[in-house]
Write a structure and sequence with these properties.
Serine Threonine Protein Phosphatase 5, Tetratricopeptide repeat, single chain
Length: 363
């Protein structure tokens, strides 16, 4: 066989092998991405949003422009409250020409952030279409959005209490429908936590705590459930609250709200050195945090250090001059320093600002 013909055959064989290799690699990547898409769906059923996001990112490394994956990534980011990431994925979806699904996602983001202008319409849709695939996503956004208005997640108490609080009846209806429609373990646990928060708005503290405890019995690692239980029992059972906050801090060591809450309960338990260490760590990274300054002032007062307390509280007052609690703490501080007239002035300011806030919060 002539050398030229032999070389051509070898070249064609090599080319064929290269083509097969490239095609095989692409097929393998396709199935790899499909596998991670399935794992993302499974993680979402468990409400494990960080894990779902990780799998979706792997999908997008292979399918960077796949509309269905981009939309699911936007939904996942929204549901885990990463709104900047949700908006970024929404913009990518828009570039791909997504229509109705993207419009719904825009609306759900607004609902979840607490813009409830369309909440009644969407809740009626859910009541009329309980079997729709869209209903659970819509219900979740409505519930989270209404709670953001009535009882924000890290708040120690709701903005108002009682049966007449606007939006409370609708919130309870949405939670009840969620619990009926979502029998999975993770969704039932989340529903119990939401129902407990609604019950606290209603003023039914014992039933709320019961829901939180049942949620944690079913899922001891539920972050939101442990947080709301800690906030609910901090007055009646500070030791239990401290245990909860400590567990939360291990889960999210850089969360300033949890660190401050733990410092506050440690101080109330008389564990002043532990509280001091927490506050010093927090002040190092957030020197102008008003809550930290106020709590540090309380700690100094409890440690009978009124001059240090005054320094901290004056600084807090500069940053938040209309915060009632600062005036109250400063009044206590000035009494310790023997400056009764100044103390009375701040006591009066506290009463005035507190009354103004209560009028503003009244339903």
């Amino acid at each position: 066989m002539p050398i030229g013909r032999k070389l051509r055959r070898v070249g064609l064989a090599v080319l064929a092998l290269l083509v097969v290799g490239v095609v095989g690699h692409r097929v393998a990547l396709h199935f790899w991405a499909k596998h991670h898409y399935g794992l993302a769906a499974t993680a979402l059923e468990r409400r494990d949003f960080p894990q779902a996001r990780s799998h979706l990112e792997k999908c997008l490394s292979v399918w960077p422009g796949e509309p269905a994956v981009l939309l699911l990534a936007a939904q996942t980011a929204r549901r885990m409250r990463d709104f900047d990431e949700a908006i970024r994925y929404q913009k990518l979806c828009k570039k791909k020409g997504l229509g109705e699904g993207l419009e719904r996602e825009y609306a759900l983001l607004e609902l979840q952030e607490g813009d409830l202008a369309a909440a009644d319409w969407y809740q009626t849709f859910c009541a009329d279409h309980p079997d729709s695939a869209e209903t659970p996503l819509i219900l979740e956004a409505i519930i989270v959005g209404r709670l953001n208005v009535l009882f924000p997640l890290y708040a120690e108490k709701p903005a108002a209490r009682g049966k007449a609080v606007p939006g409370l009846a609708e919130l309870r209806q949405a939670v009840d429908q969620w619990l009926r429609l979502r029998p999975g373990d993770a969704d039932q646990v989340q529903g119990l936590v939401w129902r407990g928060r609604a019950l606290r708005v209603l003023g039914e503290h014992a039933r709320a705590v019961g829901d939180f405890r049942e949620a944690l019995r079913r899922d001891p690692d539920h972050f939101e459930g442990r947080l709301v239980l800690a906030l609910a029992v901090v007055q009646d059972a500070p030791e239990e609250a401290a245990t909860c906050f400590e567990a939360l801090r291990r889960r999210d060591p850089n969360n300033p709200t949890i660190r401050l809450a733990l410092a506050r309960v440690r101080r109330c338990l008389g564990q002043l050195e532990q509280a001091r260490k927490l506050l010093e760590e927090l002040q190092a990274s957030r020197p102008d945090d008003v809550g930290c300054l106020l709590e540090s002032g309380h700690l100094a007062l409890d440690a009978l250090q009124p001059y240090e307390a005054e320094r901290l509280l004056r600084r807090a007052l500069t940053l938040a001059p209309r915060m009632p609690e600062i005036h109250l703490a400063l009044s206590r501080c000035l009494l310790q320093l023997g400056r009764a007239r100044e103390a009375k002035q701040h006591q009066d300011l506290f009463l005035s600002l507190d009354a103004e806030r209560k009028r503003h919060e009244a339903p």
